[in-house]
Amino acid sequence: MTGELLLRGGSVRTLDPETGTAEALLIRGDRVHAVGTDREVTAAAGPDARVFELDGATVVPGINDAHLHLIWHALSGPEFCVNLAAAGDLDAVAAALATAPPGEWVLGRGWRETSIAEFAEGTAPVSRRWLDTVTGDRPTLLHHASAHSVWCNSAALRRAGITAATPDPPAGEIVRDEHGEPTGLLLESAQDLVKRLLPQPGRAQRLDAIAATMARLNRLGVTSLTDPMVTPELWQDYRELHASGRLTLRICALLHWAEPATDSAEGLRRALDWPLPREHGELLRVGGIKLFADGVPTHGTAWMHRPYSGGGYGDLVTAGADTPRRVRELHALIRLAHRRRIRAQVHVTGDRAADAVVDAIEAAAADPWPDARHVLIHGTFLSPRVYERLARNGIGVITSSLMRTYSGPSMVRTLGEQQWADAFPARTLLDNGVPTADSSDAPVTDPDWRRGLATFTGVPGPNPFAAPTERLTREEGLGLWTSGPAWMEKTERHKGTLAPGRLADLAVLDGDPLTATGAELLELRSVLTVLGGRVVPG
Hints:
Elements: E1 4-13, E2 21-28, E3 31-36, H1 38-44, E4 50-53, E5 58-61, E6 63-65, H2 70-74, E7 82-83, H3 90-97, E8 106-111, H4 117-121, H5 128-135, E9 140-144, E10 149-152, H6 154-160, E11 172-176, E12 182-188, H7 192-195, H8 203-218, E13 222-230, H9 232-243, E14 250-255, H10 265-272, E15 284-292, H11 323-339, E16 344-348, H12 351-364, E17 375-378, H13 386-392, E18 396-398, H14 402-406, H15 408-415, H16 417-420, H17 426-431, E19 436-437, H18 449-456, H19 474-479, H20 483-489, E20 506-509, H21 518-523, E21 526-531, E22 534-536
């Protein structure tokens, strides 16, 4: 029989509670046909089945990153912008910017205040004037690692017409010095004043970059992801990749439009009045929409119950001149999505903002929609009383374990050690029956599920969960990268575990993630990644 692939002689971690761990797996077409012992599964295979001897390797369900900005990640390579993540001081920033690819603009990504010595020590501010000495009249925009701010030089501000007289846009801030002059730091929606001027790569260049990035993810064992900010143009890119047979990941798209569609109910209503994109089978699906409730703790823009060390509580970023009106707008946004039967995934990092989003979802549920599956993205900080409400209302939470590695110093400086220790409470979420998945939020972090699994299971490293009571088991942690994301997409009957009838999405790892030492876990390699029965990248 043709179209069969037999994997035998190893360990198959199905993550299916009924099947457990097996020795072999048979793929027929794009589905898992049989799982069991070597003898059982080999007997079920046809005479023409291709055989892959595992030689002790471990098969796991294909990795699914529940929150990954694929186009941003694709366009963050050295051919497009400068990587500033490793810059430890301003001299290193200057040296990196000297390598910028040719073009009208200088673009960079990945800087953090706590990583650059002069900023961390307070000996120099984030300033357009320093940037001017390095980049001159060539307009420059440097994305913060969080993607919630940018650092611009004077030429970029001039292009955008930003002066001391320019008002802050709604839900954004033009940071100013003691004389009221813009420093070059733009927070939240103020970024768009400059970002909208950036030249965009042509379609062919974008498609090639996306395809290359998908291949890199495939080599890590990734077979699915949710892209949380899919604009109409990006949807067309994905459609073209699908039509040409170049999609090597399953993409669950969260539709997103420019403001005011994401911060006002009226803007969202206008966007939703247009026909929604048509799905393309199991490879390219619409999973809902993305909304923003607040910002990020490192910038003091997450809405918190407790004040920041420098004062203030943050606030919502929805439309409105004051907090009560922003709360009403948040309710209106979620009510509209719920009424249209469109799942909403909401960016929320502050505990007070999370409470407000859950309030809004509960209010929208007055219009019954069984299994709505609205989701909190990040859920960085959560109030003790919110867990039961999340579980009762079937609200999922997508955590961001990798931010413990990348954002620790910034968070500690802003919130203190004790509060940062409570971030991304995956253990408490699972214990309370809250549907939970994990994610990279790339390019905010490097999309390496192995480091995420290590972080939540107590492997020593930057900012792990040290207390045993907070750790996950390896199987629980792996579930956050497989079955958990499938629940968020409402595809758990098709993927996320390996059982007969499920999609044949899997990774063959050269070690067992459930038993590997910490060092071994971080070095695991996928020797074979299969998407719907097809080896990827081809």
